Amino acid sequence: MEKKDEIVQYFVVNKELEMSAPKLAAQIAHVATIMTLKYQNEEDFQKWINGSQTKILLGGKETQLNKLIEQGFDFIIDEGRTEIPKNSLTVVGLKPMLKSEAQQYIKRLRLYR
């Protein structure tokens, strides 16, 4: 497997929300935990977990995150206990997959900054 087509995991953050770094980290941890439990026995997950464990953080508008949810990806809805409104869509996680496979889902998204 070439480096450019390695197995990676993408997280897409709702950039319309103003989350602090700790809040953002917690939201990503929530979806990562769910996906670990859900996909831990899949071959690509095993290759990824035993390899580089590359994670890429992207930003998108809520409409873009909703399109990913419609395609079956995992997501987190915040309970509103701290800094953002209840029922806010914070992050969508894509299970570990080849970069080339993920492009169909994330091609219009940019790195989160």
Q: How many beta-strand segments?
A: 6
Helix/strand order: EHHEHEEEHE
CATH class term: Alpha Beta
Which band does the percent of strand residues land in? 15-25%
Total domains: 1
Main sheet specs: 6 strands, mixed
Instruction: Using the coordinates shown, work out and report the CATH topology.
Output: Bit1
Rg, nearest Å? 14 Å
Helical segment tally?
4
Write the CATH architecture name. 3-Layer(aba) Sandwich
- The CATH superfamily is known as Bit1
Q: Which whole number gives the mean pLDDT?
A: 95
- Percent of residues in helices: 25-40%
Q: Ranges with pLDDT <50 over ≥5 residues?
A: none
Q: Report the span from N to C terminus.
A: 29 Å
Overall geometric form: globular
> Structural class, judged by helices and strands?
alpha+beta
Describe this structure in words.
The model has no long low-confidence stretch (mean pLDDT 95). The protein has 113 residues and is of the alpha+beta class. Strands 1, 2, 3, 4, 5 and 6 form a six-stranded mixed sheet that branches. The chain is globular. It has one domain (3-111): Bit1. It has four helices and six strands. The chain has helices spanning 21-39, 43-49, 62-70, 99-106, and strands spanning 7-14, 55-60, 74-77, 89-93, 97-98, 110-111.
Compact overview of the structure:
The protein has 113 residues and is of the alpha+beta class.
